[in-house]
Amino acid sequence: MDQVVINKLKTNPRFREYIRYNSHWYKYLNRNSKYLKEIEEEMKIKYKLTTPDRLKKISYNIELIQTILQILQ
C-alpha cells in the first residue's frame, strides 16, 4: 500500500471507518492507489458529505430555526 493511502487512513477517521466496513476496497488500494479518489467519493455519498447534501442540511436547519422563531412570536 502506498504511503499516501496509509497517511489518509491514519489521518481521516471517517475514511478509515468506511474502509473497515467495506473491506473489499483494501484489495484495490493494495494494487493501485488511484482508487483512492473513487473510495473517497463513495464515502462522501454514504456519509452524506457531498455539497448538495450539506446544502440540504443547512436548508433544513434554517427552516427549523424559522419555525421555532414563528412559534415564539
Question: How would you explain this protein's 3D organization?
Answer:
It is a single chain. The chain is mainly α. It has one domain. The protein contains 5 helices and no strands. The chain has helices spanning 3-11, 13-21, 24-31, 36-46, 51-72.
Question: How would you summarize this macromolecular structure in one to three sentences?
Answer:
The protein is mainly alpha-helical. The chain contains five helices and no strands. The model has no long low-confidence stretch (mean pLDDT 94).
Write the layout of secondary structure elements.
Layout (H helix, E strand, L loop, with lengths): L2 H9 L1 H9 L2 H8 L4 H11 L4 H22 L1
Measured as a percent range, the helix fraction is over 70%
Number of helices: 5
Uncertain segments are none
Encode the helix/strand succession as letters: HHHHH
How would you characterize the largest beta sheet? none
Into which percentage range does the β-strand content fall?
A: under 5%
Assign the structural class, choosing from mainly alpha, mainly beta, alpha/beta, alpha+beta, or little secondary structure.
mainly alpha
State the distance separating the first and last CA atoms.
Answer: 59 Å
**Outline:** rod-shaped
What is the domain tally?
A: 1
Q: How many DSSP E strands? A: 0
Mean pLDDT: 94
